[in-house]
Amino acid sequence: MKDFSRTPRPEKVEAVNNIKDILDNNSVILTDFNGIDVEGMASIRKKLRETNGTYKVVKNTLLTIAASGTPAEAAVKDLAGSTAIAYSPDDPVALAKALTEFTKGPKPLVIKCGYVEGAVLDKAQVTELSTIPSRLELIASIIGGVESPLSGLVGTLNSMLGDVVWTLEAIIDQKEKA
Question: For the domain 10-132, what is the CATH superfamily, name and number?
């Protein structure tokens, strides 16, 4: 019997290694881009660049090989159809928000699943992730929460100092008259 196994081509090995690096170092959302034209793909890529994300079409076979033996294996085990991978090293919430904007409309993007910080997310969980405030919004609300009492304290201390100065001026005026 003939042996049909062959050594993989160098470009395929490099592609698998690149995908493996993406899975190891980023938050990842897998999508089905079927039916989206070039203009739509360009707008998705542009929106993801604003969130420091990238959108790349991948072969299911190469993605499955790259994910084998990793926690992401569960996310890619049943992939079918055209697959693109959206990834970002920074904020998974911003990535999910950017992608869910494209799930509405005449040619919607279909979210398949996600892989964030070692956890596999289904479509509903990725959509839910997009409703969480982004990292910047959370930081702004924390700073606002801390700043509000501090500005109140500064105002109170300012008025108390003004009262002390006014009282001292009144005492000085009274002593000068006496």
Answer: Ribosomal protein L10, N-terminal RNA-binding domain (3.30.70.1730)
In the structure encoding, which two tokens stand for residue 34, read together? Answer: 């079927």
Three-class DSSP category at 62: helix
pTM of the model: 0.72
> In whole angstroms, what is the distance from residue 51 CA to residue 91 CA?
8
Answer whether residue 47 shows pLDDT above 80: yes
Q: Report angle CA 59, 115, 57 to the nearest 5 degrees.
A: 25
Domain boundaries, the chain: 10-132, 133-178
Rg (CA), the chain: 28
Nearest 10 degrees: Cα torsion 61, 63, 66, 69: -90
Q: Is 35 left (phi over 0), alpha (psi -120 to 50) or beta?
A: left
